[in-house]
Every structure is written in structure tokens, then in C-alpha cells.
Write a structure and sequence with these properties.
It is a single chain. The chain has 5 helices and 15 strands. It starts with a helix and ends in a 5-residue tail after the last strand. It has a single domain, classed as Glucose Permease (Domain IIA) (Distorted Sandwich). β8 and β9 form a beta hairpin. Strands 1, 2, 5, 7, 8, 9, 10, 12, 14 and 15 form a 10-stranded mixed beta sheet that branches. Strands 3-4-13 form a 3-stranded antiparallel beta sheet, with no helix packed on it. With about 240 residues, it is an alpha+beta fold.
């Protein structure tokens, strides 16, 4: 049950290792809004990976931030940049609701395991707008099993990787990828908590239809239960 896993993660919230290097005493992390409400992020920008990357970099430098974070349960128009989020039938509902958290930062930023886990699967989802290099870890905490997904990684992250190997809490096991290997996005990590992979391997939807919101949010918990970064995040007013 979702509530049971949420309670377990809350009980252990002080036990998790940071997923990215961050020192709140010297660094800043800022909230970023990529929803349809942000009129500054235009179609011209998000449909051009170079312009999109510059927009994110300018946002980070303009806010003197190491990272920008956000996106869970966020309705985004940016997925119109790729046909993998739209159905073959033009009359079908497209996928626009984001199910994980994105941490935007520098290419090759190291990624660490928040708790002990086993490599469930990995893949190079090499489609425009897709995850690119992807790793899924399986975890068992108290009496609950669950998974964490890491998308938009470097190809080095999955080089020589094997399913079933143990990744210890705090181990560096991946890094932010470049555009050619991360699905053609500005460098960032897509982090997602998934209760049930439903048979998926090396992949799981990170974006769903708005009509499927409740179904997917029941299966994909708030990533900050593990990330524990919202407490450090500077909130911005986009009005």
C-alpha cells in the first residue's frame, strides 16, 4: 500500500544518503517551474535542446544555484517536443504529467544511492526526448519493497553494469549525462520512486496522461521522501 511505504520512508527520513553532492552551508538549490504556468519557457526554447540548455544554465547562474529542482505531479507542455509522449492516434490524449523529480545541474554530476539497493535493470532508451541511459534499483526497507529510477544518465553509468549487483548506500554509481546520451535534454537527473514496476525493465513511464493521474501517483511516490531536498530549496515567485 502507498500509505504504508510513505510512512516507512518518513520514519527513515534521517537515514538516507544525499543523491547528489550538496552542502547547504555553501550551496544553493532553487525551485524550478516547467509547468504550463511558466510563460517564460516558450515552445521556441524547449523544442531546441541548445536553447533549452542555455535557458536552464541561465536560470541556475541567475539564481546563484548549484541545482534547480522540481517537477513532481507537474503538468508540462514541454513534452510536445517529442512524439514519444503523444499517441499515434492524433485524437488520443497525450502524456503531460510528470511523475518524478528533476534535478538540473552540471553534466557529469555524480549520483549516489540513497540507501542499499540491487540493480534491477538498466537500458539505453535512445529516443529523442526519452530517458537515454537509465538505471533502476530495487530496495527493501522494513517490510516493503520498492524501486528507484534514475534517468538521463551518461553511457558510462551503464558500461559494465550487471543486473543483481549490490549498490551500497552512498556509493557513486551514475552521473548526469550529456545531450547525446541523455535523450537530448539539458543535463539533469530524473529521479522516481516506484512501488510496482508492473513488469517493466530498464524503463518505466515518467510521464502520464492527466486522466491517469491518480493511478500513477498511487504507484509513484513523492521523490522528496528520499531526496530530502525541499527543506533546502528556495521558492521563487513566477507571477
Amino acid at each position: 500500500m502507498k500509505a504504508r511505504l510513505e510512512n516507512i520512508l518518513l520514519e527513515h527520513r534521517d537515514d538516507f544518503h544525499p543523491v547528489v553532492p550538496y552542502n547547504p552551508a555553501h550551496e544553493k538549490i532553487v525551485q524550478i517551474d516547467l509547468s504550463i504556468a511558466n510563460k517564460n519557457l516558450t515552445e521556441e526554447i524547449y523544442c531546441d535542446t541548445g536553447l533549452f540548455s542555455k535557458w536552464v544554465n541561465d536560470f541556475l547562474s541567475g539564481n546563484s544555484s548549484t541545482y534547480a529542482i522540481g517537477g513532481y505531479n507537474e503538468n508540462r507542455k514541454i513534452y510536445s517536443r517529442s512524439n514519444i509522449f503523444d499517441q499515434l492516434n492524433i485524437d488520443e490524449e497525450p502524456r503531460r504529467l510528470h511523475l518524478g523529480a528533476d534535478i538540473w545541474g552540471k553534466c557529469n554530476t555524480p549520483i549516489m544511492a540513497p540507501l542499499d539497493g540491487v540493480v534491477h535493470s538498466f537500458a539505453f532508451n535512445n529516443n529523442y526526448g526519452d530517458y537515454g541511459a537509465t538505471i533502476i534499483l530495487s530496495h527493501y526497507l522494513s517490510d516493503q519493497s520498492f524501486h528507484t529510477l534514475y534517468g538521463h544518465l551518461s553511457l558510462n553509468s551503464i558500461k559494465n553494469l550487471q543486473e543483481g549487483i549490490l549498490i551500497r548506500k552512498g556509493d557513486v554509481f551514475a552521473e548526469f549525462g550529456m545531450q547525446f546520451e541523455n535523450g537530448h535534454w539539458p543535463p539533469h537527473l530524473h529521479f522516481q520512486i516506484i512501488r510496482d514496476l508492473e513488469g517493466w525493465s530498464g524503463d518505466y513511464p515518467g510521464v502520464c496522461k492527466l486522466s491517469e493521474q491518480q493511478k500513477y501517483l498511487d504507484n509513484c511516490l513523492d521523490p522528496d521522501l528520499l531526496l530530502q531536498l525541499n527543506r533546502y530549496t528556495t521558492k521563487l515567485n513566477y507571477q
